[in-house]
Structure formats: structure tokens, C-alpha cells
Specification:
It is an enzyme of class 1 (oxidoreductase). It is found in: Cytoplasm. Pfam families: Aldedh (PF00171). By secondary structure, the chain is of the alpha/beta class. It folds into 2 domains: 281 residues, Aldehyde Dehydrogenase, Chain A, domain 1; 188 residues, Aldehyde Dehydrogenase, Chain A, domain 2 (3-Layer(aba) Sandwich). Helices cover 40% and strands 22% of the residues. The longest helix is centred in the first third of the chain and has 26 residues. 51% of the residues are buried.
Length: 497
């Protein structure tokens, strides 16, 4: 994938990355491009095509046509091609990871992990799809009162059509394939609109599917400005399903999309409730992992720590000790804390920090920022009147709220507009289950930080955190619809006659 032939196929003479349509790499007729800014240098690193609405139409028409043939392709053949794409993707993990480092400042080791995990996800999806879609149901009419056994009903899962996938910047490969693979195994066509930051890594990931030999038109990747093609894509009449991961834009998409299945994951304010009997060393390790990995730019990051007053001092001390050991710097050096994705993101985080300082939060470390690089910061004695108590920073800044009762912690968690994940730390399993039941979140982790994976686990949010459920099995089911065929049996007198 790093060879000259492949490079020429994906990039034009002006070093602008092409978009992928109908099995070919193309330049946009707009003659315009969109720059991708390196978060570390804050300078343009790459350029991608600024596609037009007419090119969106062409992609959708090609996808619709290709999908009709793909739906008739045997399941085993679909799975075979997915396995092939997974192998090619993992084979080229190094160059794709390098794009992740430069586009989104992901630490090098984490970037490689994302690509490998994505290949594993594709292969698992192929296997799971064969199992799920290879089964149907057989129903008999006399199981319902008042009916004789005069009807047999056969049900199976059939594809929806064209699926539009919109992943976020923080996992542009993994959260793309988590949408692409289920859509394809289920017999759908797939149109990918990658995030601007992460688009080049996504384009190279798509090239893995191209090299695997999928039919022309079945997979497309269209780049451009959301202001020009965003609504046009999401409201396109040929789109039959949208899978979106991101921020506030998702709510607008859901209002405009119409009567099609939606899978929306829109962020969170994941709460960590710490009880008096918790293993504080375990808690501290998970707060560091959950709150600061990839500089806190994860929807499942720990976003607020709700700790019982009696153990708060001890926990804060343990976390501070670990924060001091975090390395800060460029992603190429595999630092723990790397620059956040954009200057606007860094400015937003700084606004939360300034607000907390004005309202009396205790700064456990000195606030330090250089460009997009923000040093890790634990804020103690945070109160509910501070923005950081409720808003999602998407950065390496973590608030600690001291609570006097478990009920107080549950109340704060449930008062949030978000409800993606949460976690509770205690040695008492009965308390853990009761708290889990009371927390209004899609997933509760007991004695571990929130996490999306493993990728076959159900993953969903409540309230403003989204609609629908992800995870490989759930995504396959969501990207299909039920088809019933009813066999009406002749009456006994007719058959005897």
C-alpha cells in the first residue's frame, strides 16, 4: 500500500487524495480540496477532494445498482471477501497507523492497535454474519388462539439497501469498519463519509476493500465539506440506513433523515462512582486509563469521578501520583498525552478549565497548554455549578466531585443529559448490581473503566447519547429487515377430495 503504484492510484498530481466511487479513485469535478491539519504541527498535512452534490448522486446510484447484485451473492462468498479485506488491512497496519499519527495525533502504538483491531472486527463480523443470516424462523398458525394449523410462516433477514456510514475523528478506521463490515455481510451497499481529520487513513482502509476485490460500486468513500454535502448525503432518498458516531450533528441528522433505521452514538459524560470499600489502587489505575488514554478524546472516557468523601483524599493522592508519570508530547514518540485534534477543541477545553478556576475548583496540577497540547489535569472539589461537572471536555481534564452518599452519586449521574456508559467501584457485588440498575446509562462497568469493546458486546447510549445499539451482532440485525413468506395450506377436505 505504500508502493508507488498504489500511491499514484490514490493521490493525484497535486498530492490531493482522491475519493472512491464505482471501483475507481477519482478527482472531484469541483477542482477544490479540503485541508487536513496536523494537530501536532498545526500545519496542513494532507488534502482530500471536495466532492460535489452531483458526485454524491453518482455514488448513490452506483451503490443502489451494485447492491441489487450483492444481495444475491451467497453468504459464504460475502464472508470470504471480508476475510480477505481483513487480512489486507492488517498487512498494511504500519502505513495506515502512520496516517493516524499525523492526522489525529494518536500515539503510534495505539494507532497500530486500532488497525489490527479493525481487521479482527471485520473477520469476526464475517463469521457472525454467516451464523445470524444463515438462520430463519419457522412459525405455525395454531400457536395463536382460534387458529388451525393452516399456515406456515417462514421468516428471514434481508438487506436494507444503501447504508451511509459516518465515523468520528478519534477512531476513523475502527468505527468505520464497525459500520462497513456489518452492512456488507448483510447484503447492503456502503457509502462512507469519513471525518476530515482521519480521512486519509480511512481512504487507505477503503483501499483494502478495493484490493480484496469487492464488486464495483458496492463500497464508496466520498470526502468534502459537511456544509456542502452533509445534509445532501444524510437526506438522500437512496440512503436506507444511517450509522453515525460523533457529536451534536447526530441530533440534527436524526431529525432530517426521515423514516429509515438510525444508529446514533453521540458522546457521553461517563461517571465513575467510587464507594468506601473500593480497591483504590485499582480505581486509580482505571481512572488514569479511562480518563487520560488518547488524551481523553474517547466517548467512553471517564468524564467525572464521584467519590465518597471518606476515601477522596486517598484516591486523589493515588491518581496524582500516576498523573505525574504520564508522558506528554508528540504522538510519534508514543507519549501518553498528545495534542488534541484541533485548536477549537483546545480552546473549548481551556474554557472549561477557566470556568472551574473562577468558581473555586482545586487544581491538582498546574494548567499548562502549548498549541493543541494540553497537559493532564485533575480538578478536585468540583461542584455542580461548574461547567466541567456536566459538559464533555474531550480532552485530558478530569473533574472530581466528592459525594456524601451513593444516592448523591447516582443522582448526579442521572441528572446528566448523557447516558452512554458509567462505572462503579466496590467490593460488594450486591451494591454494584443495585447501583448499576439505578444508573441511567447504556452500559455500566463494574470495577473497570468504561470501554466500547470487545466489539461484539452490545454498545448503546440512553438520552442524548444516542439511539439504537451497536456491537457486531446488533449492527448486523439493525442493517437488515424481516421478510416473511406465508404458506397457506389447503383445507383437509380439499386434500382428501
Amino acid at each position: 500500500m505504500t508502493g508507488n503504484a498504489v500511491f499514484k492510484a490514490i493521490v493525484d498530481e497535486a498530492e490531493v487524495y482522491k475519493y472512491y466511487s464505482d471501483g475507481e479513485w477519482r478527482k472531484s469535478s469541483s477542482g477544490k480540496s479540503v485541508p487536513i491539519i496536523n494537530p501536532t504541527t498545526r500545519k496542513p498535512q494532507y488534502k482530500v477532494q471536495a466532492c460535489t452534490q452531483e458526485e454524491v448522486n453518482q455514488v448513490m446510484e452506483a451503490a443502489t445498482s451494485a447492491q441489487k447484485s450483492w444481495a444475491k451473492t451467497p453468504l459464504w462468498k460475502r464472508a470470504e471477501l471480508l476475510h480477505k479485506a481483513a487480512a489486507i488491512l492488517k498487512e498494511h497496519k504500519a502505513p495506515i497507523a502512520d496516517f493516524l499519527v499525523k492526522e489525529i495525533a494518536k500515539p503510534a502504538k495505539d494507532a497500530v492497535t486500532e488497525v489490527v483491531r479493525s481487521g479482527d472486527l471485520i473477520s469476526y463480523t464475517a463469521e457472525e454474519g454467516v451464523r445470524i443470516l444463515g438462520e430463519g424462523k419457522f412459525l405455525v398458525s395454531d400457536s395463536f388462539p382460534g387458529n388451525e394449523r393452516s399456515k406456515y410462516c417462514l421468516t428471514s433477514k434481508i438487506p436494507l439497501g444503501v447504508v451511509l456510514a459516518i465515523p468520528p475523528f478519534n477512531y476513523p478506521v475502527n468505527l468505520a469498519v464497525s459500520k462497513i463490515a456489518p452492512a456488507l455481510i448483510a447484503g447492503n451497499a456502503l457509502v462512507l463519509k469519513p471525518p476530515t481529520q482521519g480521512a486519509v487513513a480511512a481512504l487507505h482502509m477503503v483501499h483494502s476493500f478495493h484490493l480484496a476485490g469487492f464488486p464495483k460500486g458496492l463500497i464508496s468513500c466520498i470526502t468534502g465539506k459537511g456544509s456542502e454535502i452533509g445534509d445532501f448525503l444524510t437526506m438522500h432518498p437512496l440512503v436506507k440506513c444511517i450509522s453515525f458516531t460523533g457529536g451534536d450533528t447526530g441530533a440534527a441528522i436524526s431529525k432530517k433523515a426521515g423514516m429509515i433505521p438510525l444508529q446514533m452514538e453521540l458522546g457521553g459524560k461517563d461517571a465513575c462512582i467510587v464507594l468506601e470499600d473500593a480497591d483504590l489502587d485499582l480505581v486509580a489505575a482505571n481512572i488514569i486509563k479511562g480518563g487520560f488514554s488518547y488524551s481523553g478524546q474517547r466517548c467512553t472516557a471517564v468524564k467525572v469521578v464521584l467519590v465518597m468523601v471518606s476515601v477522596a483524599d486517598a484516591l486523589v493522592e493515588k491518581v496524582n501520583t500516576k498523573v505525574e508519570k504520564l508522558t506528554v508530547g508528540p504522538p510519534e514518540e508514543d507519549c501518553d498525552i498528545t495534542p488534541v485534534v484541533s485548536e477549537s477543541s483546545a480552546n473549548f477545553i481551556e474554557g472549561l478549565v477557566v470556568d472551574a478556576k473562577q468558581k473555586g475548583a482545586t487544581f491538582c496540577q498546574e494548567y499548562k497548554r502549548e498549541g493543541n497540547l494540553i497537559w493532564p489535569l485533575l480538578l478536585d472539589h468540583v461542584r455542580p455549578d461548574m461547567r466541567i461537572a456536566w459538559e464533555e471536555p474531550f480532552g485530558p481534564v478530569l473533574p472530581v466531585i466528592r459525594i456524601n452518599s451513593v444516592e448523591e452519586g447516582i443522582h448526579h449521574c442521572n441528572a446528566s443529559n448523557f447516558g452512554l456508559q458509567g462505572c462503579v467501584f466496590t467490593r460488594d457485588i450486591n451494591k454494584a448490581i443495585m447501583i448499576s440498575d439505578a444508573m441511567e446509562t447504556g452500559t455500566v462497568q463494574i470495577n473497570s473503566a468504561p470501554a466500547r469493546g470487545p466489539d461484539h458486546f452490545p454498545f448503546q447510549g440512553l438520552k442524548d447519547s444516542g439511539i439504537g445499539s451497536q456491537g457486531i451482532t446488533n449492527s448486523i440485525n439493525m442493517m437488515t429487515k424481516i421478510k416473511s413468506t406465508v404458506i397457506n395450506l389447503p383445507s383437509p377436505s380439499y386434500t382428501m377430495g
